[in-house]
Design brief:
Chain A is an alpha+beta fold. Chain A is built from ten helices and 13 strands. The relative contact order of chain A is 0.16. In chain B, about 50% of the residues lie in helices and about 20% in strands. The chains are: A alpha+beta, B alpha+beta. Chains A and B meet through helix 1, helix 2 and helix 6 of A and helix 18 and helix 19 of B.
Chain lengths: ~325, ~500
């Protein structure tokens, strides 16, 4: 029985977590290159050098002493995002929409006092949200105004597009849509929706919410499939370019679409989750094998790799 | 990447099996050092009341047979003198002294290792004419009865005698008169003596034996049976039923000379009991003895050479890698959620001193208290290190309270709480809190239950004495464990839990 079930998963080309860890992450992602994706400040610098757009950075806070000066410097900005440079899973991110007499107003309408805001930054610096628990830095960057394309199927927050890139070739993608349950965050395990995107066309297909298959957004009631993602080829190119940026062979690339600035690289993940397979109702393994077999055919440029991906997936 | 890993695993396996084979074949280590059933503890407890003169108690002791090795023998004689003497092959322990009318407690304890021995040779044992002091007429009768026997082969002869004891006299066909005379002899000397007389008259050496059956049990009197020499070995005949024992190796003869296993003069035995029990633990002492006196390199580098107080530690330590292996197996092949890798193993180690029930109870209690405090602490927005320190302090305070409560209630298990891994407990509280916040209570409880389940499994594995002993005798098995760990590390197949997680994908063609 168990063997049969394993067999079925294998036939469906499902990538399991053991294989992902041992064959792809350890095989393609040298440990020494991890800081390039784990530290968002470094990621942004590298991305800029490759002309991949990222959200504009207002400040970076690296020492507790800088927190006091931050308030003054933030006068110029009404909207911004604070995130830890080495955060994981979206924890520690605060979206500020405006300010009131007593402090800042967050995305969800909550008011945070100045004192609590400073405390949050100092928490970030002491490494509460960082992957390793070591000292961290905080980034204050521009708030993204999401392109209206997903507004009918997201509740607050910023939908982001996740593209899994193997050896520079985009292999699978989905868009993560925030829900009321996920508190505006685009993380699947917090209750966001994952909707698969057909790689060749950039149109959304099936979707999962908390590991159930759904067709409509639970909060807005609108269908999540059949949405054409704008700037699709540019996004694929940005994703493919991350191979040159980081040198890592197996990456999850998170992009957001700003209504003014277009697609922006939010962050990279060296250990992308496997739920993307559920969102697409398709196993990753077959596509990864296809890339492995086609390696001679794929030329060195990101454009050629995107081209190949569009033709094959 | 796969091949070198498999190769390394193979090399480690080979190394382990070579060392193991060397120890077994060249140094004569037992392949299954913990195999039960071959080491027995024999205890004799007696209460003796003395008379006016000197009291002397004679007990037949084990150790009279080939293939019996003493691992330990302890004699407590109270105020009496103890001496050892031989009667034929039997070892007789004699306790003597002037004890008056008060009761004296006498205790004998031996741990014996039984090696299977083939009693080779066809020479019958020396004739022992001690069994039946028959008079001339009675001897004549025995000869008449056994007339038809002498023609049979020894084994057939024994069968016929056994049948006769079981009231089947047909082949012997005695006359009614002889049969009545035989009944008188049985009444006069007892059945065992009568049967001995009969078989000796037919030319078969025989003897009356008192002894014990090896099994976990207590008896107030030893068993009595008859041994008949079939030309190669003693066959055992039960006088009550006339049956021939099929498993003579399970019997321990104590007194083979016809005399009782316990005799007293100048007093009385007010209570006596014989006990036999299987002994698993003490088995290793045998290897200890061997390793102590051996000059072999592997023996000199044996763990048996360590002082005993450190040996105990290593018996546990050697099993910790297995615990880690189990954690790896359950996580990577089954998909159990756990808090960290080592937490379940460390919990299992701690359970050894607190006990499983107390350990789990204390653990979940402190986790609950810790979680509540952590929830309150969250409002204060403390920084990471001080916040963890507060939780750590809380854990220590809980330990102290429990130990004090345990002292008042007289529960040692609760005082042993200090051995729980407090650092791990502190981190579990923090991770439990984060998990509840990020993934919900259900997921956090699942992870906690998974950790508890693994620590229980690991606890039972590291407490399993035969396994402890096996690893203690053959520490090279650790290389084999490492080999399995390496292979597990290269397991890239699906986890059992992924069948469920990706069940929707599996359905597609």
């Amino acid at each position: 029985l168990i063997w049969k079930a394993f067999r079925r998963l294998k036939d469906a080309g499902v990538l399991g977590i053991n294989s992902r860890n041992a064959d792809y992450i350890m095989g393609c992602n040298p440990r020494s290159l991890f800081p390039r994706v784990d530290n968002k400040i470094l990621t942004k610098k590298l991305a800029q050098a490759h002309r991949v757009p990222t959200p504009p950075v207002y400040f970076t806070v690296e020492q507790h002493g800088d927190i006091a000066g931050l308030q003054k410097a933030l006068q110029a900005h009404d909207e911004f995002v604070v995130k830890p440079a080495r955060g994981s899973g979206g924890s520690g991110i605060v979206l500020v929409k405006g300010r009131s007499d007593s402090g800042y107003i967050t995305q969800s309408g909550e008011v945070i006092s100045i004192g609590r805001f400073s405390h949050h930054i100092s928490e970030i610096l002491s490494g509460i949200f960082s992957l390793s628990g070591l000292e961290d830095a905080a980034i204050v960057e521009a708030l993204i105004h999401p392109d209206p394309v997903f507004s009918s199927v997201s509740f607050l927050g910023v939908p982001d597009v996740r593209i899994v890139v193997y050896r520079g070739v985009p292999v699978m993608s989905m868009v993560r849509l925030p829900t009321r349950a996920s508190d505006g965050k685009a993380n699947l395990h917090r209750g966001a929706i994952g909707a698969g995107i057909e790689l060749a066309s950039g149109v959304t297909t099936s979707a999962v919410h908390l590991s159930r298959t759904i067709s409509h957004h639970p909060d807005t009631g609108n269908p999540v499939d059949g949405i054409q993602v704008p700037y699709w080829e540019k996004m694929l190119w940005m994703a493919a370019e991350t191979y040159e940026i980081t040198g890592l062979g197996y990456l999850g690339v998170d992009l957001a679409i700003d209504r003014d600035l277009g697609p922006l690289l939010l962050e990279l993940n060296a250990r992308p989750g496997l739920a993307i397979q559920l969102a697409n109702r398709r196993g990753l393994k077959k596509r990864l094998d296809l890339v492995d077999r086609a390696s001679a055919e794929i030329s060195a440029t990101p454009e050629a790799r995107v081209d190949w991906a569009l033709r094959n997936f | 990447v796969k091949r070198p890993a498999v190769l390394l695993a193979l090399i480690l396996l080979l190394l382990a099996s070579c060392l193991l084979a060397y120890r077994v074949i060249r140094l004569g280590y037992p392949l299954f050092p913990a195999a039960p059933g071959r080491t027995w503890q024999i205890t004799i407890d007696a209460l003796v009341r003395g008379g006016k003169g000197e009291t002397s108690l004679s007990l037949a002791l084990p150790g009279n047979q080939a293939g019996q090795t003493f691992i330990e023998e302890k004699i407590s004689s109270g105020t009496m003198k103890f001496s050892l003497s031989r009667e034929g092959p039997d070892r007789i322990g004699v306790w003597s002294g002037f004890i008056g009318p008060r009761e004296e407690e006498i205790r004998y304890r031996a741990i014996l290792f039984f090696r299977p021995v083939r009693i080779a040779g066809t020479t019958p044992p020396a004739a022992q004419d001690i069994s039946a002091p028959l008079d001339r007429a009675e001897q004549e009768l025995a000869r008449r009865l056994s007339r038809n026997l002498s023609r049979l082969a020894p084994r057939a002869r024994i069968k016929t005698i056994a049948a006769a004891v079981g009231a089947q006299w047909k082949p012997l066909s005695p006359t009614d008169q002889d049969f009545q005379a035989w009944r008188k002899i049985v009444e006069k000397y007892g059945l065992p003596a009568a049967v001995c007389a009969l078989s000796q008259a037919s030319g078969l050496p025989s003897r009356r034996v008192e002894g014990l059956r090896l099994g976990d049990g207590i008896t107030a009197g030893p068993l009595v049976w008859i041994e008949l020499w079939n030309g190669r070995t003693w066959e055992i005949l039960w006088p009550e039923t006339g049956e021939i024992e099929k498993k003579p190796e399970n019997l321990l003869p104590l007194a083979t000379g016809g005399s009782p296993a316990a005799r007293i003069s100048g007093g009385e035995i007010s209570d006596i009991r014989w006990m036999t029990g299987r002994e698993v633990v003490s088995h290793w002492r045998l290897h200890f003895e061997r390793a102590q006196h051996s000059a072999h390199l592997l023996d000199r580098w044996s763990l048996f050479r360590l002082p005993p107080e450190f040996q105990q530690t290593f018996r546990i330590l050697l099993l910790v890698p297995i615990g880690a292996l189990i954690v790896g197996f359950l996580r990577n092949m089954i998909g159990f959620p756990t808090f960290g890798i080592f937490m379940p193993v460390l919990m299992a180690l701690a359970f050894r001193s607190t006990g499983l029930i107390y350990g789990l109870g204390i653990f979940s209690g402190i986790l609950l208290i810790g979680y509540t405090v952590r929830l309150l602490l969250d409002r204060l927005h403390l920084l990471l290190v001080p916040r963890m320190s507060v939780i750590l302090t809380l854990v220590i305070v809980c330990f102290t309270m429990l130990a004090l409560a345990g002292n008042i209630a007289g529960l040692r298990q609760m005082m042993a709480v200090g051995l729980l891994p407090f650092v791990i407990l502190t981190m579990v509280i923090e991770r439990f809190f984060v998990l509840v916040e990020e993934s919900g209570v259900a997921e956090a409880l699942q992870t906690a239950a998974g950790s508890a389940a693994i620590s229980i499994i690991a606890y039972y594995i590291i407490s399993w004495e035969p396994l402890q002993l096996t690893f203690f005798v053959f520490p090279e098995l650790l290389a084999a464990v490492a080999a399995v760990q390496i292979l597990l590390g290269r397991y890239t197949g699906y986890r059992l839990s992924e069948i469920f997680r990706f069940r929707k994908l599996g359905g597609q063609p």
